[in-house]
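HAD family hydrolase structure dump, as promised
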Amino acid sequence: MSIHSSGAPVMVASDLDRTLIYSVNSMALVGSDHLAPRMVVAEVYDAAPLSFMTRTAEELLEGIVERSIFVPVTTRTRAQFSRVRLPGSGHGYAVTTNGAVLLHDGEPDGDWSRHIQRSLGSECAPLDDVLCHLRGGAAVPAVLRVRTAEEYFVYSIVDRQALPDGYLDELGAWCEARGWMTSLQGRKLYCVPAPITKEAAVDEVRRRSGSGLLVAAGDSRLDAGILELADIAIRPSHGELDSDSFSLPNLTVTSASGVLAGEEILSFVSGVLAETLAPLP
Ligand SMILES: [Mg+2]
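structure tokens r here:
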């Protein structure tokens, strides 16, 4: 790991899905097929490739992992995260379950879990209330399946086109009044207790690792906090934050969208590292 000129290592915190890795449906490839970028498989599920990144993106990430404290930050559960294969996988810190779980060398951190449990205490409605709301009297047919993530939060698979007008706003207000927040990403609708955030976990890793400059990337509302926490932030020109026209003074937006935005993000981060790291002796 190289050292920032301030003496502290640089930390790179990045969301995974639709930021670094892409399903076939989210790739948004344009142009002639024979000019498409070469790709590598980043996730296999049920014996079939599910998520990808460009080969160039993977090479860039290898360099970033060598030169920084690279921290994957995902809303995926531990089991979902364990399928993702990236350079450096299984070493160092990783944030899963939207910040409820902090992994260190692949093992969950007990202190962080206890901290999360305490913070849920009185600040937000119990998970069962949200489950009942989504499945009970207020249920709509466009919400196809409702699941819990490690008993921390709820996500639903939805038919976006069939969602009733105003449903998302109403659900958002209902959740907010109970200390929860919502996020719609592709076909997944998340309801997450407000104290469970990616930024709290990223801040904890930053404190423990003594890192200096923080560079962050993400595409959804659940990533807004890490972009705000970062010294330098970047997001793709697609996804929920792009729909919200989310901007910050220190935030760069990619010119590419889809899987090529992932490559552009990693190229940007590599450039930041090259500029800010002192040359190796
Ligand atoms: Mg994402």
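The pocket of magnesium ion is lined by residues 15, 17-19, 219-220 (CB under 6 Å).
lmk if u need the other ones
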